[in-house]
Amino acid sequence: MLYFLSDLSDGGGVFNLFRYITMRSGGAFFTALLFGFLFGRPLINLLKRKQSNGQPIRSDGPESHILDKAGTPTMGGVLILGSLIVSTLIWARLDNTYIWMILFVTVSFGLVGFADDYAKVSRNNSKGVSSRVRFAIGLLVAAIAGYWAMQAHPAALAGQLALPVFKDALINLGIFFVPFSMLVIVGSANAVNLTDGLDGLAIMPVMIAAGTLGVIAYAVGRTDFTEYLGVHYVEGTGEILVFCSALIGGGLGFLWYNAPPAAVFMGDTGSLALGGALGAIAVATKHEIVLAIVGGLFVVEALSVIIQVLYFKSTGKRVFLMAPIHHHFEKRGWAESQIVIRFWIISLILALIGLATLKLR
């Protein structure tokens, strides 16, 4: 919105600053961060009044969770989404189709997550909206987003899958780019959702991934950068950096209250929305495979659940003491803070590897 103030500039002066993506990204970050600090405590107090028992804790989960986390309110993702959406609408160019596509995915998955959280809290049961319903809605949203991105991409890249490391390598998926996008977006949303099981565990890797994808989006949206790096130019994706900056600011504001011991959980409201947003950014920037590297922690968490379920059904035995894998380490006696910080370190390493693919051609 503030971008249009640049129209008042004749090429100089303070209003000209609003033309620069980097300046508006900084504004988005601090706006979202301030929003989180201002409304975090009032929102938590409201959630506590509305949720007398807090988030229902799984009876089959780690025993410490039943003792330590009972009564903690959920739906804290509302704080992240509120700061993210408001900040993006203020600082991003509202004539950019990628911004609206990513917002569409974020809000849609956020609403699905909110409905799931509300069902859990109102019934005082860890089972919310049917997984089939959630999955079906997620696929529909992702299908729309995939087709949207396909129409927005340059003709030479529409329906193409770009491969990292291999310069100019493309795989023509054609119309199958839409189901591939569905897999990326829905898979990312559910992987982040599975990771959100310990205080602060999911939000920091999400911010790290968002920062990495934001840098990639900015580079992919500039002809000088793409020529130097040998990556595919996608006009307009640079604006996604504003969204990613707002996500990081809102995430930090939330982490202030989610740091151990958490005063609030993000719930499915936050985890599904943020995971879906990461998937949508990857689709928009043609870096879907790089997302699997940058978000490798989320991939491992999801795979641990899939492996556990399939192996148990076929043999009646378990590979892990408990899935997702962060609970396995809890069962082995690792302290919660140990697991969280070590997983953060892994996320940072994977993000650096993902960034390295820009230059390794």
Task: Describe what this molecule looks like in 3D.
This protein has one domain. α4 packs antiparallel against α5 (131-152) and α4 packs antiparallel against α10. The chain contains 14 helices and 2 strands; from the N terminus they run αααααββααααααααα. It is mainly α and 361 residues long. A two-stranded antiparallel sheet has the order 1-2. The two termini are 37 Å apart. β1 and β2 form a beta hairpin. Helix content is 66%, strand content 2%.
Which descriptors would you attach to this protein?
single chain; 361 residues; mainly alpha; two-stranded antiparallel ribbon; 14 helices; globular
**Level of helix content?**
55-70%
Structural class: mainly alpha
Span of the ends, CA to CA: 37 Å
The counted number of beta strands is: 2
Number of domains: 1
How many helices does DSSP assign?
14
Radius of gyration: 20 Å
User: What general outline do the C-alpha atoms trace?
Assistant: globular
Offer a quick outline of the entry.
66% of the residues lie in helices and 2% in strands. The protein has helices at residues 21-50, 63-68, 77-91, 97-123, 131-152, 177-195, 203-220, 223-229, 240-258, 267-285, 288-294, 296-315, 325-331, 336-356, and strands spanning 160-162, 170-172. Strands 1-2 form a two-stranded antiparallel sheet.
